[in-house]
Amino acid sequence: MSTEVKINSPISQDSNYILKPKNEEEVSLIVKDLYKKNLPTEIIGSSSKNFIGNKLQCAKILNLSKLSGIIEYLPEELYIKVKACTPLVEIEEILRKNNQQLAFEPIDFGYISFSKSNKGTAAGYLSCNFAGSRRFKSGSVRDHVLGFRGVNGKGDIIKSGGTVVKNVTGYDLSKLITGSFGTLIALTEITFKVLPKKDSSSTLVIHEKNKEKIAKLFDNLQSSSNEISGSIFVPVEPNDKKYTKNREKIFKFNDLKNEGSFLAIRMEGSKKSIDERIRGLTDELNLKDKTKSILDVHQSLLFWERINNLELFSETLNGLVRVVVPPSRCIDLMKYLDQNYKYYIDWCGALFWIEISGMDETKLLKIKDYIITLGGYVTVIKNPKNLAPIKDIFTIDETRLHISKKIKESFDPKGIFNPGKMYRSI
Amino acid sequence: MSELILPKIDKTTILSRDKIIYKLKKITKSENVLHQDDEIKPYETDALSAYKQRPLLVVLPENVQEVSKILKYCNEEKIKVIPRGAGTGLSGGALPLNDAILLGLGKFNKILEIDFNNKCVVAQPGVTNLSITHAVQHRGFYYAPDPSSQLACSIGGNVAENSGGVHSLKYGTTTNNILGVELVLMDGKICRLGGKTLDQEGYDLLGLICGSEGLLGVITEVTVKILKKPQSVKAALIGFPSIEDSGNCVTEIISKGIVPAGMEIMDKALIEATDNFCKAGYPRDAETLLIVELDGTTSEVNELIKTVSEIAKKNNSSSIKLSKNEKERLAFWAGRKAAFPACGAMAPDYYCMDGTIPRGKLSQVLKEIQRLSKKYNLPVANAFHAGDGNLHPLIMYDGNNKDELKRTEEFGADILKYCVKLGGVLTGEHGVGIEKRELMCEMFNDNDIQQQLKIKQSLDEKNLLNPGKVYPILRKCAEEGRVHVHRGENKFPDLPRF
Ligand SMILES: Cc1cc2nc3c(=O)[nH]c(=O)nc-3n(C[C@H](O)[C@H](O)[C@H](O)COP(=O)(O)OP(=O)(O)OC[C@H]3O[C@@H](n4cnc5c(N)ncnc54)[C@H](O)[C@@H]3O)c2cc1C
């Protein structure tokens, strides 16, 4: 891990502190100037997620929020091209009208800070690459970015990809910039692949708390041919005052029969096919004697919305981390967390959202070291204000850091975009 | 085909051949260093066989340490290296250079781990695509991307090219189906990107490597995702009296929210060619043929195939056959899968193009291809992955006829330019390689290309790994399109080479 610290210029609050270009040409001109003057710059869309990553102290803020609006939407070609900082809700709204969706199921990071929705902009979302519950089935954000335009750290306007799904012309830079937290490029335009929405959905809830059994169910679900598009485990909260008990309130549904820990499975498709799959799963997973609930389409939609709003962690004052592990190690991590943390498991056992009370560097490093031994990684999503800055918000090894530095230099040779946001030395 | 501009030959390397052989024999077993003419010959070309080059020598390392040492040595001595998998590439990506070592991954042919718990397989890069499915099918699993060459092509080559198949619309291409790779950089550094987790944090280096055509590193291990076979798979074979009708049918299927596992269109020329070749039982009166494959749970598939039939009828289909069993389904595909050999049987040579277009532009593109076919006086047959817009015109020609060769090449380039003009791209799955290098300027401007070259430079400072591929040799995209130059007659001798 690198300990090198990037020193940013002090904040000079001149009248031009916040730069708000109206179009791509202006972005390019501004960045050319920043490059010439060597001014570290924070890039923002709507700041909905700027609590993620290291805090920045930059000479300038490049606010791209004026680059907003849908450029082209061709439902039958399954793509939508938008200006980079188009609000995500605007995109979801127009897709909904055409019975389509962003299949990676965006997560709403608004609730964890202010208990209300704040999905932010397309570019902001892309820069984080955090997909929701459908990920294990439909891919991550990076799998749905077909192309982009943007301005690199020298001020050059560049593009990559296109509007078609099958494209191997040149390096796939769309993937590279997805999840780069604004450290490589100031995005100006994005093309997303979109997919049809399924007619209906339903959620099968299995009331179960035994960790081994949960792990086994996850394992069977991953290899089930009864297609599922979501599978989570929500254990009861620990008996510790430092964690808010809001679980029963959030998951209060008419058809949810039992209190206590549960595993929920979503199926989407035609009503007939869903019924068939519920029957299929009941046989396949041997669920006959288990206590089960079935949520109809209305409850089901709300249920998954609440999951992907991270409402379990609404306004939490604790730390929040996102952990991805190989699915087979889910059982180990469950045992490790036991009753000491508030958490839930998504992606059929591969993703953990963990709330950590009294999170500090030592506590975090301990968990992180353990997760690395499982072959997984940790991203700090929320580091409470009253805690000291944490050094390694992301997980990286030496060789990848080495390559990442080189990639960064190739886009942003003077390191002016979001310096230190992901790693101190990048 | 016409002679290519290749990177400037480094005479010092050629003169040091004996020394290099000696050095390499210290790194790997001496029988792994091939330098006799007859040993080298099979490596002179890939599946774009019109181009041939003799490599300086061929080395077939056996493990990652050897790859690392070879690359480190070559980097220090400024020797060019061309990675090669199974050599089935159609864009000349593995074409050797006279002063380059051809690094074959043929000895990396083992499946290292079958991990059913994490639904993945760890394989060496030389393992063929199909053998991964073979290794897991006894438990009902398979590896989704299915290029037609899957019997022969290597998984390392698939990653390098980001290969796709007929099921890419629903299941994605290679990049959507791999979890990790082990990679050796040109300076010999060994690194792991990804692993057994979904997504990797930080820059998506795995996404960058996938489709990088052997320019950024040598892949020495691949971890792929495996999927459970769907419960039910059915196909519909639908004939149409016109291209427009089949195109409209595809658009309506998609608009209805159906995502078929596969959706293929063949034009009249290809229907005839394949039906003659393998008696596929295709409707010969049809102008176009559409194969739609649906998979999922039994009732869902039954429901959907009914909807597809209705949509087809509404769009004037002239015939509809639904597969009643697995044997029939495979028979529907038999002709389509034999598209290449069928064209091969009709002319001494064929040239397979690989543009992608917006689905809705199909009839417009096919009309233009017909026009060009008349203009260049060359027959053409078209196969189209209608689901994802990937078009494969197969131009038939006689390679011994110099003029025909030239016309074929121009015809192909015109098709690709037209694809780009209509909002498509130069290549959907076969890669740019040496073949479409100079056409890159149709899609990208100088800034775009420079950014990509910077990435290349940052990982391979001396431009030694697979040089002369993908990016135009005439670096400025201001220079117009394709360049025909005979060896040594470079029109712009003073321009920097890359
Ligand atoms: C009949 C036929 C049908 C085909 N059908 C399809 C199809 O349906 N879909 C499709 O996508 N393609 C298809 N192809 C093209 C080809 O099979 C694919 O591009 C395949 O992925 C190439 O794999 P290979 O092992 O043969 O690679 P090669 O041809 O050996 O190499 C291809 C490129 O990858 C690089 N490379 C190879 N291995 C490595 C490695 N280990 N590390 C770094 N770089 C490496 C090489 O330098 C070269 O640039 C077809 C080809 C043929 C001949």
Explain the overall architecture.
The complex is a heterodimer of chains A (426) and B (498). Chain A has 3 domains: 3-63, no CATH class; 70-196, Uridine Diphospho-n-acetylenolpyruvylglucosamine Reductase, domain 3 (2-Layer Sandwich); 200-395, Alpha-Beta Plaits, CATH 3.30.70.2190. Chain A has 13 helices and 18 strands. Chain A has helices spanning 24-37, 88-97, 111-114, 122-128, 135-138, 173-177, 211-222, 247-250, 271-284, 297-308, 330-337, 361-373, 398-411; strands spanning 18-19, 41-44, 60-63, 70-74, 79-83, 100-101, 145-152, 157-161, 185-193, 195-196, 200-207, 230-234, 262-269, 292-295, 319-324, 342-346, 351-356, 377-382. Chain B has 498 residues and is an alpha+beta fold. Among the domains of chain B are: 111-228, 2-Layer Sandwich (Uridine Diphospho-n-acetylenolpyruvylglucosamine Reductase, domain 3); 232-340, 2-Layer Sandwich (Alpha-Beta Plaits); 347-435, 2-Layer Sandwich (Alpha-Beta Plaits). Helices cover 35% and strands 19% of the residues of chain B. Chain B has 17 helices and 19 strands. In chain B, strand 18 and strand 19 form a beta hairpin. In chain B, helix 9 (243-255) crosses helix 11 (298-314), helix 10 (268-278) crosses helix 13 and helix 14 runs antiparallel to helix 15. The two termini of chain B are 22 Å apart. The chains are: A alpha+beta (426), B alpha+beta (498).
Q: Going across the major beta sheet of chain A, what is the strand order?
A: 4-5-9-7-8
- The helix fraction of chain A, in percent, is 25-40%
Helical element count of chain A? 13
Total number of beta strands of chain B: 19
Query: What is the number of domains of chain A?
Result: 3
Sequence stretches where pLDDT stays below 50 over 5 or more residues of chain A:
1-13
Assigned CATH architecture of the domain at 111-228 in chain B: 2-Layer Sandwich
The total beta strand count of chain A reads 18
Amino- and carboxy-terminal Cα gap of chain B: 22 Å
Question: For the residues shown, what is the average pLDDT of chain B?
Answer: 92
Major sheet of chain A, described briefly?
5 strands, antiparallel
CATH class type of the domain at 111-228 in chain B: Alpha Beta
Q: Quickly give the CATH architecture of the largest domain in chain A.
A: 2-Layer Sandwich
Shape of chain B: globular
Identify the most extensive interface between protein chains. A-B, 87 and 92 residues
Distance between the termini of chain A: 12 Å
